[in-house]
Amino acid sequence: PDLLSIGNCALDLQSRNSIDSHQSNDSRNNLTGIDAQELLSVLSDLYDRELVGVIGWAKQIPGFTDLPLNDQMRLLQVSWAEILTLMLAHRSTPFTGRLYFASDFWLDERTAKECGAIEMYSHFAHLTQRFERISASKEEYFLLKALALSNCDVRLENPAALKKLRDTILNALNDCVLITRHMSAISHQQQLLLLLPAVRQADHVVRRFWTAVNRDGSVTMNKLFVEMLEPVSR
């Protein structure tokens, strides 16, 4: 039941939001020809929109809203970049050199260089290729997102409740892999979990990049996005 609940809530969100939708068959980038500052402005707006979607998605995970409200906010503040990175990797698979931040907006190596995001692109591209090699199912992907949310090293009011939630997600992932992978279940689950340190490393790259953009001031960033970039005491 936990596996189905977590999986179904994510599937429902996929139909309502663009944040989990796959790349379209249209190879054109609707923003071709705009300058680097405009690219960053659009990318910033996409991140802000996806942050709103992630907050709504998290509230549908069974057990998440049972946590104290302050704990919910701290978990989201710490994990949002990891969750969005997993979503980007999933959306950009199969990887063709393009990272799809939306169905009609992608960055390749050239455009990433133009807007000063080559370090972020390189990390994302490497992670997306690893994600593709693992061949995670939709259910495994949804559970990895939930695990990224619940596996935060941050001080909470009720750490026992978080441990219970995390154990539920881990058990659901274990059951999912056992059911679908049979003989290769142990090896496959190891590969899924080994992806998470790379996702956390990408988190640092994302925060460093957008903090620099915000300090530069050339791109207007929405209030929610700026607030989520603020460091959280651990």
Summarize the structure.
The chain is mainly alpha-helical and 234 residues long.
Detailed description of the structure:
The structure is a single chain. This protein is mostly helical and 234 residues long. The protein has a single domain, classed as Retinoid X Receptor (Orthogonal Bundle). The chain contains nine helices and two strands. It has helices spanning 2-16, 36-59, 69-91, 109-114, 118-134, 138-150, 159-181, 185-216, 223-229; strands at 99-102, 105-107. It has a two-stranded antiparallel ribbon with strand order 1-2. It starts with a helix and ends in a 5-residue tail after the last helix. The model is unreliable at 1-19 (pLDDT under 50).
Number of strands: 2
Total of DSSP H or I helical runs spanning 4+ residues: 9
Q: Largest beta sheet, briefly?
A: 2 strands, antiparallel
Overall body shape: globular
Under CATH, the homologous superfamily reads: Retinoid X Receptor
User: Can you give the mean pLDDT?
Assistant: 88
| Approximate helicity band | 55-70%
Class from secondary-structure proportions: mainly alpha
N→C terminal distance: 32 Å
Strand content: under 5%
